[in-house]
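Hi F.,

I've been meaning to write this up properly since the lab meeting, where we talked about keeping a consistent format for the predictions we share between groups. The idea is simple: the sequence comes first, exactly as it goes in, then the structure tokens exactly as they come out, then a line or two of notes. No screenshots and no reformatting. I'm using this chain as the first example so we have something concrete to point to.
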Amino acid sequence: MKLYIKNMVCIRCKMVVKEELKKLGLHYVSVELGEAEIMEDISAEQRDQFKLALLKSGLELMDDKKSILIQKIKNVIIELIHYSEEPLTINFSDHLSQKLNHNYTYLANLFSEVQGTTIEKFIISHKIERVKELLVYNELNLTEIAYLMHYSSVAHLSAQFKKVTGLTPSHFKQLREKRLNMLEDI
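Output, unedited:
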């Protein structure tokens, strides 16, 4: 049986879900971003207890099919941007369609209707957040980051970064370094 969970976007979330399932005596086959597959059927009482336990950690058990699909879209994007090291060989729309077995136009329209923003804007905001992380880690140069994040060029990455944050990637990095130096002086 599959359970769909909203706001489950990190490894810590997976640990919380696993722990709560164990507490209820439920055995999981797998726990991935946004979903958990369990061996048994879940009783109404266990479902209510699980729902309450998840809420305490900022997670939410979902029943509505549209909400479940929206969360799946988000999870595919988040996993691809934040957790995948492999370069994407097809575009995001084809990737989403293949992963979720739905027409991209349907997914895009549903996402926009429910979220009030486009899939493209959601992807861009997550890509920029990931770029910020990579800049802070200071392990890759901008060319490597552009390649890793599937940008056609450093110029494209820089333009999108500036449009979203108001800063160039190098200025963002300088501000961070300046802040660290100020903290060291305290």
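Notes:
The chain has nine helices and four strands.
Strands lie at 2-6, 28-32, 35-38, 60-62.

If this format works for you, I'll send the rest the same way.

G.
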